[in-house]
Protein 1
Amino acid sequence: MIIIKSPQEIDLMRESGRVTGYILKELGTLIKPGISTAEIDGFVEKTIRSKNMIPAFKGYNGFPASACVSVNEELVHGIPSKERILREGDIVSVDVGCTYKGYISDAARTYGVGAISPSAARLIKAAEDSFFEGLKYCKKGHRLGDVSHAIQEKAEGEGYSVIRDFVGHGVGQNMHEDPQIPNYGTEGRGPRLEQGMVFAIEPMIAEGTFEVEVLLNNWTVVTCDGKLSAHYENTVVITDGEPELLTL
C-alpha cells in the first residue's frame, strides 16, 4: 500500500531533507584525495546530530555507519573504513538519510575525487541526467512505469546499463515503503501517481554489465565485471503541479 503523506508530514520530511541536501552539497568540498571513507561518515553523522536529527542508516538492519560510501565498482552500501583512502581519479557515491521527528529523507550523489577521467565524469552526469529525465513524469496522473521507463531510456541511450537488483522506493516513517521503483520498465504501467506520495528515486547505472554481487561483508554491492558505477538519488514529493525535491 502506498502511503499518502499529509501536509504536516511533508513539512517534517522537508526539514529532514534540507539537512540531507546540505550534507551532500558540503561533501562536494570535503571529498578529495587522501581522505578516508570513515572521515566522510564522521562528517555525515556529526552534521546530522548537530541538527538534532538521527542518522537513518545507522543500525538499519545492522548497518554499522551513518552513510553508505561506495567507491568505483562499488554500487551501493559501501561500509566506511579508516583504511579505505580515496585516491586521485576515484569516484565515490555517498548515500545519506536523516530522521526528523520520525520522518526520513534519503538521497545520494556520486563525486569525482580530484581529477577524474572524462569517461568517469560522463558516467556521473548520466546518472544525474537519468534522474531528472524520470522526474519529468513525477506528476499527478502519470503512472510509475512512466518514471521508470524514462530513466531507463536516458541511461541506456547514453550507453550505460541499468541495475536491476536494486530499486528506488517509497519513503516516510520507514526507510523503505511501497512502492518499489525500478529504474527500468514500461510506460503506462504501474500505480497512478497521486498528490502526497513521497518517493526516493535513485538511478543506479554502470559502464558495463548490470549484473552485481554482494561482498562477503553482506552489505557492499559491486559490479560483477569490476567496471565503474554511479548513483544519484533525491526524495521527491508528488504535488498538484511540479514535483518537489526535498533533498536538493
Note: Residues 7-245 form a domain with the Creatine Amidinohydrolase fold (CATH 3.90.230.10).
Protein 2
Amino acid sequence: MVVMALIFGYPVYLNVRFSLMDLTGFDGVFSGLRNYRILFEDQAFYHSLLHNVMLLTLVPVLVFLCIIFAVLLFERIRGWRLYRTVIFLPTVLSITVIGITFSVIFQGNGALNEMLRGLGLRALALDWLGDRTLALLTVMFVIIWREMGFGTVLFLARLASISEEMFDAALLDGAGWWARLWYIIIPELAIIIEFYTVIMVITMLSWVFNYVFVMTQGGPGYSTYVMELYIYNEAFKHNRLGVAAAAAVVLLLITVVLMVVSLRQRRKVVAEYA
C-alpha cells in the first residue's frame, strides 16, 4: 500500500499543487485558483468536457452489443470461431495503427467514399472527418469497433461457466430467446457487466486521446476536442502548465465521482445476486 501510494499518490499531489501555481517549467509562484478561473472561462474546455460526456453514452451501447454478440457466439452459430476472432482482433491492434487506417478510409477520397461512388451512392460519400457534425460520430464508431471485442469475449467467458441445466430447464418451461436473455443470461452476467461498465467509463474519460489525436487532432474546430487533448495542448502547445494541471484535477474528480457511483451500484448488484 505504501509503494502504491508513492507511485500514484505523489504524482496526484504534485498535479494538485501545480494547478495552484503560476508555472514556468517546474518552478513557479502560488496563484491560488487563478488557473481554475482561466479554465472555466475557456470555451475549449467546455467543448472537451461535453464531448467526453457524449462519449459516455457509448457505454450502454457497448454493453448491449457485447451481450448480443456474446450470446450469439455462445449458441455456436455457424462459423462462430471465425466471428469470435474477427470481433476480438481489433482489441489487440494498436490504437495508433487503427486511427491511421481509419483516417485513410474516411478521407474525402478514401476507400469508403470511393466504394460508395462506385456503387452509385455518391450522395452518401460524405466528409466523415472534416464535417463538424460527422467527425465525432465517426470517431465514436471507431471506438465501438475496437472496444467491443474485449467485452464480447469477457461476457462469453462468463456464459461458458453457466450450468447448461439452467438453460435446459428454461427450454422445458417454454422460455423463448428473449426470455432466456432477460431472466437468465443478464442476471448471470450482472457482476461482469458492472465490471465492464467501470472499465469503459474510465476509457471514455481518459483513454480516447490516441483516437482523436491521430484521426482529427481535435478538429475541425473544437468538434472532436476531448479532455485529454485539451490537457495536452495546454501543457505542450500553449505552455500553460498550471491550466493543464487544473484541467487534469477536474478530470480526476469527475472520474472518482463516477467510480464511486459505479462501485456502490456494483455492491447492490453483488448483494442482490449473491
Note: The chain has 13 helices and two strands.
Protein 3
Amino acid sequence: MTARRTAAKIYRGTARSLRFLARCLRAGELVAVPTETVYGLAADALNARASAKIFRAKGRPTHDPLIVHIHSFAQLELLAKTNDAAKRLAKKFWPGALTLVLPKKKRVPAIVTAGLPSVAVRMPRHPLMRRLLRLCDRPLAAPSANPFGYVSPTTAEHVRAGLGKKIRFILDGGPAAVGLESTIVDLRDPRHPRLLRPGAISRRQIEDVLGIKLRSVPTRGGAKHAPLPAPGLLDRHYSPRTPLVLHKKMSRTRAAKSGLAEAWLFFARPAGLTGPNVFWLDARGDAYRAARRLFSRLRALDGRGFEKIHAEAAPAGDLAEAINDRLRRAAGLGQA
C-alpha cells in the first residue's frame, strides 16, 4: 500500500525558512515560490531530473517549455546568447515582469526548453524570490504552480488547493502584485522581435525601447503539436472548469434576466445591477486592479457551482491586450 503524502506546508519568508528552502532546491526538490506575476513551481534549472519533476507535478506536456528565473545579469550570460535588443530591454524592465526568449547555451537541459535551441529567461522583482535565488545561487525553472491548463495561482493558498498533495514546500510571499504572467518577447532574431505573450509590460512600452514594431504569433493547439517557443501559446489555457463565455461588451439587461445558474463577471461595476450572480473585476474599472484580481475571481466563481461564467473583455488600454488574452484562452478561443 502506498502511503498518502501529507498536504504541502506553507512557509513564511523568514531568513531561516529561506535558507531551508534554498537547500531543498539545491537538493533537487520542488518549491512553490511567489513572484510579482503569479506563483511559480520552482526547481533547479540546471538539474534535468529536478526540472522533470515540475512536469510530473503539474501534468504538463513536455513540449511546453519552462521559464528560467535569474537574479543577476551574469546568470543571463551563462544561460543564453544575448544581443543588443535583449540587453536594452533587460536594462529597462529587469527586475520585472518581462521574459526574453534567446538562443540557449549548452548548460541548459533540453527538458527545460522542450528540446529547442532557445531558452526563456526572466529576472523577477518579488523580494522573497530574489533572496531565494541569491541563496540558491542557481537559476530556477518555474512555470505557474497549478495543475496544467487551470487558472494560475496568485496566493499560497491557491497553490496548496491545486498542488498541495503533489509538492511539499510553498513559500508564502502574499498576493501577487501583478496577477498576470509575464510578457514574453522572442528575440532569437532581434531584427524581427515577436510578442509571444502579452503581459503587464505592454507592447507599446517594448516597441518604444526597441524602436521597432513587434509581430504577434498565432495560437497553437493541443498537446500533440511540436515544441512551443514559450509557455502560454495554447488555445485553451488559464481555464476554470466551469465553461466560460467571453463578451466584448455585456448586456446588463440580459444579465438581469438570466437565471441564477449563470455568473456574470463585468469588468467594472455595472450601475444599477446587483444580484448573487453579478460580479466585477474592479468597481471603478481600474485595469491594474482588475488584472490583479482576474485569476482569483475566476477561481472563486469556479467554486460556486455555476453552470456557466459570462466574462466581459477589458476596454482599450495598455493592459487590455494581456487581460483579454487570458480571457480568450480561458474561454478556449486562443489568440488570433
Note: The longest helix spans residues 287-302.
Protein 4
Amino acid sequence: MTARIDFNCDLGEGCGDDAAIVPCISSASIATGGHAGDARSMREAIALCLRHGVAVGAHPSFLDREHFGRRELSLPPADVHALVRAQIEQLAVLCVEAGTTLAHVKPHGALYNLAARDAASARAVAQAVFDCDPRLWLYALAGSELARAGAALGLAVAQEVFAERAYAAGGGLVPRAHPGAVIEDLDAALAQVRGMLRNGIVTSIDGHALPIRADTLCLHGDRADAAAFATALRDALRAEGFAILSPATRIPHA
C-alpha cells in the first residue's frame, strides 16, 4: 500500500505567496480573523483551494492581530470555546457560499501551543469544534492534550508534525523566542521530515530521539521562503513514495 501524508499550510494571513503554495499542498488552514484575515481574504483563500483540489480548514486564534496571535492570553475555557466556535462558523458560512464544506480545524499560534499543553483549554477548543460539526477533523500537535481531548469527544484527530520547527525534549515545539526554534535550512528540514515519516522519530533540539506520530505535515505559510519550501517538501515527499492527500477527502493531490 502506498504511504500517505497530508501536507498542510496556513493561508490568508496576508504575508505569504498563497498562490504559489497551494498547488503543493493537500489541505489549508485559513486565518479566520483572530490573528489575520477578513471576509475578503477568506473568500480568496477558499477559491484558491477549490481551484487546486485542496481541503479547506479553519485556523482560529486569540483575538490579537497586533501580535499575530502569538501572544498567549489568559482566558477562561468558556471564552476560548466562544472565540473558536465563532471563527469556525464564520469560515463555514463562506465555504457554503462558495459551494464547498469545511474539512478541519487547526488552532493558530499561542492558542495552538496553549491547547497542546493545557487540558482545560484543549477541552474548550475540541468542544467548540465538536459543537460546530462533529464530522470536522481536528489538527493537533502530535501527542498533545488537544489530540487527547479531540479523541475523547470522538472527533477524527490528525496528529500534526512540523517541517521547520524544532522540538523540545518533552515533545512540544521550542518557543519561537529561543535560538534554533525555527529551522531555516531546507536540507535540515527535509532530514527532520524523513525521520518523522519513515522512522516515527524526531530529534529534539538537545539531541534526544523522541517517538512521534505523523498524520499531517505542516509548513508555516508566513515564512518569506514558504513557496520554495513548499515546492521542495512536496517533491521530497513524492520522491520518498508518499501520496499527498487530505485525511478528510482521501483524494490524491494532483
Note: Residues 77-98 form the longest helix (22 residues).
